[in-house]
DNA sequence: TTCAGATTTTGACAATTATCAAAGGATAGA
DNA sequence: TCTATCCTTTGATAATTGTCAAAATCTGAA
């Protein structure tokens, strides 16, 4: 199994040879430069992207201010979740923070695969469940943690992100201003 | 289709007659009094509950303080999500805020149904996806909204909750203290 | 109906975090 | 190498929200 996407997802559930080749047949490999926009504002997200190499940021504008919603790196997925799931436009923008190698599947292809392969439908369920847990973890962190606790948490769980992503975006990701994060970093 | 659970879930995806009866065969109807604990602290959540009538609260203790994580009413589900999905103990407690009529499915039964019925696996995927959207909505709200915005949002989206749930729990659900919510309510 | 206990409100004050502004550093292209 | 631009830091101040305490109100059981 030479495809990194198949390697990662088969850790969620084993896939039959047929399902693997059906998936491989619709996967598109992309090499894109830093700054490339995967999903434009207020459009329908038609693709889900698996990151072989690189880094993506999902963000939106709230009252004119740039809010970093999500960051994804190697082995993870980048997508405007609500838009992909509902096939409705969404304010979320997905862009590359680094030159990246991605594997893309279209919504249409994925729906067809779900219809035809029970094990791929299962994979979809497990990936959605896993995504739910990730969002819940971030929600918990925001729910009653101080700015310092949130920063410490990120340092513990994902220290490399702090080196790869500009401070202002990390701050926004953590729900605080760049000034607050800068001060926190100074006093640790 | 006289089962309220089947009526609601069939809005996500149509189920074959066989899948419907297989689901009906493992569903257990429960009538429980207010205050009943569905999921105890630090135990594995073995059941997912569909609410025909009533109201549940999911909460946990953070630094000795009671944090209301989620509220579910008629037509929704109550579960300690991460515990149910991972089958690991979790700090979340699920209790009834009102006398309730519930339909329960065990994790084991559900896994078997997923194996045997592609359309139930699909239902699971769609319910997980839908849950993901709900958590994401709450996350967005917490991310860069003020306490007043969050309260207004709840009044707009779910005004009945405010009448059915004690103020202190609503405040915690919204990520603020009871005093702050009380003051907000006074000045509107 | 009455009362004990729980919940909500109000007040005074403190802590946290945001905002605005300006200075200091880093970075990439000419 | 130089410079324009962007990013980060620092300072002063303001706004928001939390904490602690006490009073007011509500609720349910005897």
UniProtKB/TrEMBL annotation, chains A, B:
UniProt protein name: Crp/Fnr family transcriptional regulator
A Pfam family of this chain: cNMP_binding
Domain Cyclic nucleotide-binding: 11-122
Region forming the signal peptide: none
């Amino acid at each position: 199994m030479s495809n990194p996407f198949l390697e990662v997802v088969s850790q969620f559930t084993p896939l039959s040879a047929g399902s693997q080749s059906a998936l491989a047949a619709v996967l598109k490999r992309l090499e894109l430069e830093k700054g490339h926009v995967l999903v434009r504002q207020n459009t329908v997200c038609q693709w889900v992207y698996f990151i072989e190499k690189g880094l993506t940021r999902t963000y939106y504008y709230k009252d004119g201010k740039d809010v970093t919603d999500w960051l994804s790196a190697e082995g993870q997925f980048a997508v405007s979740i609500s838009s992909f799931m509902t096939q409705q436009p969404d304010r979320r923008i997905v862009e590359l923070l680094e030159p990246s190698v991605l594997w893309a599947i279209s919504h249409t292809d994925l729906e067809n695969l779900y219809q035809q392969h029970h094990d791929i439908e299962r994979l979809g369920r497990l990936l959605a469940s896993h995504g739910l847990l990730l969002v819940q973890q971030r929600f918990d962190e925001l729910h009653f943690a101080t700015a310092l606790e949130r920063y410490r948490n990120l340092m513990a769980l994902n220290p490399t992100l702090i080196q790869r992503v500009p401070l202002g975006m990390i701050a926004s990701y953590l729900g605080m201003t760049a000034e607050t994060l800068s001060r926190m970093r100074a006093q640790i």
